[in-house]
Amino acid sequence: xxxxxxxxDPPIAVIVTTSGGLVAGDRLDIxxxxxxxxxxxxxASAAGKVYRSTGRTTIxxxxxxxxxxxxxxxxxxETILFDGARLQRETIIDLAPGxxxxxxxxxxxxxxxxxxxxxxxxxxxxxxxRHDGELVWGDALHLExxxxxxxxxxxxxxxxxxxxxxxxxxxGRDPRRFLEGARAVVSGDVAGPVRAGVTxxxxxxxxxxxxxxxxxxxxAFADLACHLRGTALGLPPRLPRIWHT
Length: 245
What we know:
By secondary structure, the protein is mainly beta. The chain is about 15% helix and about 40% strand.
């Protein structure tokens, strides 16, 4: 869908999963390409759901690329892993010189309101950021076998219900310029069930969250996204209306 953007916002593209969720064996190939100087905000119509699998794996490949001077936001809502789900997701971000990117995702371990945990299954979440075709940052998370023990381990997720990652590639500016403001935002949000950290590496700002409750994590994620789109991308410090429906 392509809803009308609010004043000051770039064009919006909304990915819709008409089935309401993904089942074992589903494969999605999502490609976003911005022409030189273009700007766009890409999101999804609702939280993604990956249902329990009897053996096959859901595979999602996301390829996001920008032309010189373009600015892309990729901020879908959370992905909910049902107990027994199997998901392999790879996101490749290829940035041309002078372009900008702000994006990330939230992953929720089970339907906690129903008393369900993501105790068994499979998750492989991989990120790659490339500048002009050259790999500058990569990250991969792999959960398999005794997933519940890994999530409960204090050296791993410490019993978290959800985690999130956000990536900012500011256009031609030192990412360290945005660290102090970003850390102030996440420190103001972090209370009780949410823990967060922000760092600068390889020309990027990387933010991470762990939360005992997915709802405050979603709010914290949105707060930082609003702050960074205002300070780094020169956009209104708000998210599109669909984020709040």
